């Protein structure tokens, strides 16, 4: 095996693409491109159950795409900073294309209608 092949590390990119290989997870990332959100925001914007939302967010978290913080009984998610430059560029390019997709614009519109000061309480 050549030194160039040995030095090529694609594990981060592979993990990123595997996690994003699902429509629901892509839609979650599109919503998170607008800022930090609570699980309940995804439920209402995407018409998902709490268990499905949590399962999808766990996949994204395990892949290093999102990070979570707890506030009392609520968990809030945001896009995680990408340390790998290839992953950072790919995620940035993906997020930039979301605004041109009708279904993703509709998700954002539903999110904006449901998101209020006490939406999570």
Automatic annotation (TrEMBL):
Q: What is this protein called?
A: ArsR family transcriptional regulator
User: Which residues are in the HTH arsR-type domain?
Assistant: 5-101
Q: Which InterPro entries match?
A: ArsR-like_HTH, HTH_ArsR_DNA-bd_dom, HTH_MetalResp_TranReg, WH-like_DNA-bd_sf, WH_DNA-bd_sf
The record ties this protein, via PROSITE patterns, to: HTH_ARSR_2
| Keyword annotations | DNA-binding, Transcription, Transcription regulation
Q: Which GO terms describe its molecular function?
A: DNA binding; DNA-binding transcription factor activity
The domain of life for this entry's organism is Bacteria
Asked whether the keyword Transmembrane helix is assigned, the reply is: no
Does Transcription appear among the keywords?
Answer: yes
